[in-house]
Specification:
It is built from 14 helices and 34 strands. With 687 residues, it is an alpha/beta fold. The protein folds into three domains: 165 residues, Chitobiase/beta-hexosaminidase domain 2-like (Chitobiase, domain 2), CATH 3.30.379; 352 residues, Glycosidases (TIM Barrel); 146 residues, Sandwich (Jelly Rolls), CATH 2.60.120. The strands form seven sheets. It has an eight-stranded parallel β-barrel with strand order 8-9-12-15-16-17-18-20. It has a seven-stranded mixed beta sheet with strand order 1-7-5-6-4-2-3. Strands 21-34-23-28-29-30 form a six-stranded antiparallel beta sheet, with no helix packed on it. The protein is globular and about 75 Å long.
Length: 687
């Protein structure tokens, strides 16, 4: 190869290393390439193999699985322990600790972070050296993204330019919050979200685990107990707080939650659990009505003698579940006229939780109009709005640690919100140019219009940022996968901005660069398949059956994500030979389809969405189901009329709103025992 061509390739490849999500801090290119072929091996430094929690060896095992996922190499050798000199003439990734470049491996406030890492790449050896094991883990994410982008650029096997670099996040807290109190999720889905977010170096999962669906016509009337409430931690039946859980089938046992924490931790993410009191507490007052403020069932009367002991008993039962060093007690939107009582409560809970478990607490920033009391500066305050809420620069001036969750930049809501207040996904234009000076957003930016409400990137009391995904409209507004569709790109954008900042690093991603990279990395993100991808090329035929004569028929695809076209011709049985309405026609991991009223069911929430169409019995009807990320509709007998599956949402008891539903294809089981009709020309195509 001509040296000029090699030089150009190296420059382009070096840019490839920086141009990831999130972008890498520093990299200096050398003069050749590290080739990633099927002979690659992983060696963990024997000196540090058992260091950390998770250990370096544990991270390495997951890393090996992820390499197999992004390369397709199924015969990669098992992880070994040894020394750097153990690497032979085959390509080797060496994981170790001891990174110490204090000038580069810091947060923007200058503090050294265990999440930093160094990497040195030679022809045969790719060394990742973390400050702590978590730093080495983030280094493996960088390696994987390099491999994915190299393959996408046409290199087979993947090639990575030699050289050396350093990388560390700008902020300590880079998290996402999911409202699981108003919407039920299985732990398997939440685990997959952790794994996906980890690929973009997000390190916290804030879990808003108790809440209710707000409807004032119910809340302030005699039927307040009919409002949907969620409290997701299910204590054992002999626990004194067992009666607190409203629906046992929509709660997690300690074993289930522990397994979820372990999965997230094994991918570098810490779960921060939130139990919201003294407001948003309808689950508690349904259990013990005597604890509420008269006339406002969602607010606890914290001056009533039994209230705070009851709240402490809840934490006593659940604190042993949580492995995080911090928890959130919520503490937002309480009665402003009771500010002194509220502040006393927060400080009491801070002292109690710290004293009994050693954990710190966080609260949502809220108005505390007291001239005599103040919240302890031990408490981290999570800012979320300005009108009537906290003013973060003032809080930091007073010595409070602050996390930025400002709703203008960082709020999403499931499918829709009041007057469409929040976007479907985070606003990319706002994140890249939403600061008052026209530059991009970063955790130090709290206001898009008032620079006096923003701070510098090196403010030592600015801990970082958490984006929020709310579910104000409950289970019937979205399926779990629809929540992922809203989060997928948002998490990647957020990962870039909270790791690399904005207009700070020369290597930071431009918006068009992010838009180019995201689809590639989203499709390759290892360890989960939230896209419900098939591995087939776009527009491919997933399966086709001319006739299905024996039920049930199992396929090789548990679930297929949109876009797709699912077509079939079906002859429903006559009324005298009808199938049971409970018999599904198609079943998948994420959806079930019933012929009666052309109904989709979400198997996690058991909610059904019917089209309101009953097909003619003893007559074949051709059906085409088309799905995108935003809707699902049917075409019958070749008609061009689109019949959309929808849900009708009660918006705070003020009006109803129809929203489109998107379903993954129920592609795993065709038919079921008891189906008495006929089914032909069953076809599933991508696109």
């Amino acid at each position: 190869m001509h040296w000029r061509n090699l030089s150009l390739l190296l420059v382009l490849a070096a840019r490839q290393i920086s141009a990831q999500i999130p972008s890498v801090k520093f990299f200096t290119v050398s003069s050749s390439f590290f080739i990633v072929d099927s002979s690659i091996q992983i060696i963990v430094d024997s000196e540090y193999a058992d260091s950390g929690s998770p250990t370096l060896s544990s991270f390495a095992q997951t890393f090996r699985d992820d390499i197999i996922s992004v390369t397709g190499f199924s015969n990669i050798s098992s992880v070994q322990t040894g020394s750097e000199t153990s690497s032979s003439e085959i390509p080797t990734v060496f994981l170790t600790l001891g990174a110490s470049d204090s000038s580069n491996l810091t947060l923007f406030n200058g503090q050294l972070t265990g999440e930093g890492y160094e990497f040195v790449i030679t022809d045969k050896l790719y060394t990742i050296k973390g400050v702590e094991t978590i730093g080495a883990w983030w280094g493996t994410r960088t390696f994987l993204q390099q491999v994915v982008l190299s393959i996408t650029n046409g290199s087979n096997p993947a090639t990575i330019p030699t050289g050396e670099g350093t990388d560390s996040p700008g902020w300590e807290v880079r998290g996402f919050m999911l409202d699981v109190g108003r919407h039920w999720f299985e732990t398997s889905f939440l685990a997959d979200l952790c794994i996906y977010a980890s690929f973009f170096k997000i390190q916290e999962f804030h879990m808003h685990a108790s809440d209710y669906i707000y409807d004032p016509s119910f809340l302030y009337g005699v039927d307040w107990r009919d409002l949907y409430t969620g409290f997701r931690f299910q204590p054992p039946s002999d626990s004194p707080i067992f009666g607190l859980v409203p629906e046992l089938n929509e709660s997690w046992t300690q074993d289930e939650f522990t397994a979820l924490q372990t999965t997230c931790s094994n991918h570098g993410i810490t779960i921060i659990p939130e139990i919201d009191t003294p407001a948003h507490s309808l689950a508690i007052t349904k259990w013990k009505p005597e604890l509420m403020i008269n006339g406002t069932p969602d607010l606890l009367n914290i001056t009533y003698p039994e209230t705070i002991p009851t709240i402490k008993s809840i934490w006593d039962a659940l604190l042993p579940w949580f492995t995080s060093s911090e928890v959130s007690i919520g503490a937002d939107e309480y009665d402003e006229s009771l500010a002194d009582d509220y502040i006393t409560f927060v400080n009491d809970m801070d002292g109690y939780i710290s004293g009994t478990s050693g954990k710190s607490i966080r609260i949502w920033g809220t108005l505390e109009p007291s001239t005599t009391e103040s919240i302890s500066t031990n408490v981290t305050i999570q800012h979320w709005w300005f009108p009537g809420g906290s003013i973060p620069v003032q809080l930091m001036d007073q010595g409070y640690s602050v996390i930025n969750s400002d709703q203008v930049f960082l709020y999403l809501d499931g499918k829709t919100s009041d007057q469409d207040q929040f976007p479907w996904e985070l606003n990319a234009d706002l994140l890249w140019s939403g600061a008052p000076d026209g530059k991009g957003w970063a955790p130090n930016i709290f206001s898009a219009t008032d620079p006096t409400n923003n701070t510098s990137i090196d403010n030592p009391l600015l801990r970082g940022s958490i984006m929020a995904m709310w579910n104000d409209w409950g289970n019937n507004a979205t399926t779990p996968l629809e929540i992922y569709y809203q989060l997928a790109k948002s998490l990647a954008m957020f990962g870039e901005k909270t790791w690399a900042g904005s207009d700070v690093r020369d290597t930071g991603l431009a918006q068009d660069e992010f838009e180019r990279l995201f689809p590639i990395l989203n499709a390759a993100a290892p360890g989960q398949n939230l896209n419900r991808a098939t591995g087939l090329p776009p527009s491919a035929q997933v399966f086709h059956y001319d006739t299905v004569s024996t039920f049930p028929l199992q396929t090789s695809f548990e679930s297929v994500g949109p876009p797709y076209t699912f077509s079939f011709s079906v002859k429903p049985p006559s009324n005298g030979n009808s199938s049971s309405p409970a018999v599904p026609l198609f079943t998948g991991l994420d959806s079930i389809f019933y012929l009666e009223s052309m109904t989709f069911e979400d198997p996690s929430t058991k909610i059904r969405y019917d089209l309101g169409v009953d097909l003619v019995s003893d007559t074949f009807t051709s059906v085409e189901i088309h799905a995108t990320l935003n809707h699902t509709y049917a075409l019958l007998n070749g008609s061009s009329e689109k019949l959309f599956w929808m849900s009708n949402l009660d918006i705070w008891g003020e009006y109803m709103k129809l929203v489109n539903m998107s379903f993954a294809a129920p592609s795993y089981i065709i038919g079921a025992d008891g189906f008495a009709g006929e089914l032909v020309n069953v076809s599933l195509k991508l696109g």
